[in-house]
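We now fix the convention by which a protein and its fold are recorded. Here is one such record, which you should read through line by line:

>
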Amino acid sequence: MKEKSYIVIGGGTGTFSVLSGLKKYTDNIGAVVSMADSGGSAKKERDEWGLLPSSDIRKSLLALADVSASDSLILRKLFQYRFAKGVGVSGMTFGNLFLVALANIVKSQTKAIEMASELLRIRGRVLPVSLDHVDLVAEYMDSSKVIGEHNIDEPEHNGRIRIKKLYTNPKAKIDPHTREAINGADIIVIGPGGFYTTVIANLVVDGVVEAISQSAAKKVFIMNLMTEYGQTFGFTARDFVLEIGKYLDLRNLDYILVNRTPIPEKILKRYIQSKASPVVNDLSGSWPFKVVSLDLLSSTVVKKEKGDTLRRSLVRHDPEAIARFCLKNLTK
């Protein structure tokens, strides 16, 4: 029987969790990642070097990297290493700098990703959703507008105001290789991740929603564990679903996974400053997809790296729980 092929659409730490779980069971995985990042080292890559941001690429490469041999493990650690001091490099990772240098040497970011994939012996492929240089633009309910992924993710305005519309400027087109991979997938996993800045950011690229709709794959959307100030403040599971339905026909989805494990009180206290709260599952009633409530919370508590200046989530999805669901329910 032919091995099922997976496409995981998103970026950042959410996609990292999904890929980390799936790679233990298959190498027929394609990670489709957003290329609109504009914070941290991405700003330097875009503004100073004229390149597309590579942070989400790096994270997906690391998630799929082989760690069975000592040389592979040290390479993975090198790609993860973040500089905590040094003018111009503090906050950046070795992996991002490596990808920048490699892209300049071979004169192609696409080729650099392929070569880094070989070097790390990844189990699968990492696919930029688009190779167009764009900015994310968010229009809010109060008619205000914010340009740039980082400015949407860490807003200077009132982060309680909801986003009315997200798009790219200029318009971005799906990369042909990515379209082909989505069309040919057996299973498509969307999310989790920064809801607008990594999940919806992929869906607003021209051709992505069409490719998902045309694919005969089984499709699942993984709900975030926590809300996020500036993106999803006060959202319930129903709000997430109705919002994604503005960009993707909900009839395309077969499953939506929602966490049922309570977030520990000591973790919730750490979230007070960031104005985040657990996503409440209020998806009762009739939907065109099946709602599945699972224990999706990882027991690992995330510690902030030295030199990291960006806001990060403190909790993660359990890679094994996601992989088990996919293998049990989506591969038949």
About this structure: The chain has one domain: 6-329. The two ends are 11 Å apart (CA to CA). The CA atoms of residues 10 and 198 lie 5 Å apart.
